[in-house]
């Protein structure tokens, strides 16, 4: 796993991102949000990178389970922007038990959100709605007859507690109070033979069978829910009052006629299904002729048209990585709106350390690897999803400065500070508490996470050094003063 290291922060590394393809349209002022983790990372955590793959912020949360974060993104709650992500125990392969964390613009944890009814929040989804509620997944071991899928031998030690499955649940809760608003359980609405997952030796209470596997949730303006179900190869639309399944796209109970020669419903093991307004694609999508009683929606790359009993689905566009990356787990697809034009599309490849940014028509703009191709499908380094958002960070920490061993350079960084434009190196020979004693000696443009400032012979002879962060409009940024370096002590 190739990484960048930093003189100012020996506790931090970031991926050595490799842009196999680059287009300036990817430099759009947004930042990439990733969660590198895997066998190659001793200190994983949520991470923000700029449009060139340079580190902006990261932090390892020592939670007792390795600190691996999932589902990292920016979300709005009560008119403020927050960083949100999951931390917990992910040692049960494929899901987890923990909490969702919400950090403010100073990177302080403001909310820790858990599930209701004594359940533990799963890692797959935490989506904040405009109503101030959160959608989240959870998994629970329950008894369920699986004898249609396998038989048990009471004489076998591993079969003494038969008929156990992981039930999949999603909840909508009020973030401010934890009040449960809605709960849905897969076992209440579907038969276990809907699964495509091979049960093998699972299906006991000690080794439950993961037959369903929700990996994303969304909610529309009608109050209904959309869930992606990995092991039934289906996307379900669920009534937000009764919990009944309104329709199923794909799977054994598919309700749709595919007008794309089977391409629209032959997906399997899918991840990250979302609603998108059809107007997001003003040029790419041409709606079918209007028909009385029909409505039109857009589901990622599929257009769904229909009445209660007659649905059709067709593919609008597919997005293919230049190296034909195929990930066996995880992944994401994000629509990035562009004013007056079709959006860009960002695809993260989950288990494989790749993300690709596309034009709406499928043209590749940027193709980025943050792990070797030889590591694909091995789990050496991966990111559950990859997102792109606008974000302004104002750390409550201070910049960190470090002088090189040869006394010819000084390094400076400030983890999470997004608004720094320039760094000013100051020196003083006297009282460091007197602001008038400090003299500006070098001003440089901020470059990447860690900026290198050359030190001249004259500066090297100064007693005290410090660095000041300057923002737009020549504004000195709050907390933007490094600790004072006593150059005589350093030199000695």
Structure characterization notes:
With about 500 residues, this protein is mainly beta. The chain folds into 2 domains: about 5-390, Neuraminidase (6 Propeller), CATH 2.120.10.30; about 400-490, Immunoglobulins (Immunoglobulin-like). The chain has helices at about 455-460, 485-490, and strands at about 5, 15, 20, 30-35, 45-50, 55-60, 70-75, 80-90, 95-105, 110-115, 125-130, 135-145, 165-175, 180-185, 215-220, 225-230, 235-240, 245-250, 255-260, 275, 295-300, 300-305, 310-315, 330-340, 340-350, 355-360, 365-370, 385-390, 400-405, 410-415, 420-430, 440-445, 450-455, 465-470, 475-480, 485. A 5-stranded antiparallel beta sheet has the order 3-27-26-25-24, with no helix packed on it. Strand 11 (about 125-130) and strand 12 form a beta hairpin. The longest helix has 5 residues, at about 485-490. It is elongated. It comes from Baudoinia panamericana (strain UAMH 10762).
Describe the protein's topology.
Blueprint: E1 3-5, E2 13-15, E3 18-21, E4 31-34, E5 47-49, E6 55-58, E7 70-77, E8 80-89, E9 97-103, E10 109-113, E11 126-128, E12 133-143, E13 164-174, E14 180-185, E15 214-219, E16 225-229, E17 234-238, E18 245-250, E19 256-258, E20 275-276, E21 295-299, E22 302-306, E23 311-315, E24 332-338, E25 341-348, E26 354-358, E27 364-369, E28 387-389, E29 400-403, E30 409-413, E31 422-428, E32 439-445, E33 450-454, H1 457-460, E34 464-470, E35 476-481, E36 485-486, H2 487-491
Parallel strand pairs: 19-23
Antiparallel strand pairs: 1-2, 3-27, 4-5, 4-28, 5-6, 7-8, 8-9, 9-10, 11-12, 12-13, 13-14, 15-16, 16-17, 17-18, 20-21, 21-22, 22-23, 24-25, 25-26, 26-27, 29-30, 30-33, 31-32, 31-34, 34-35, 34-36
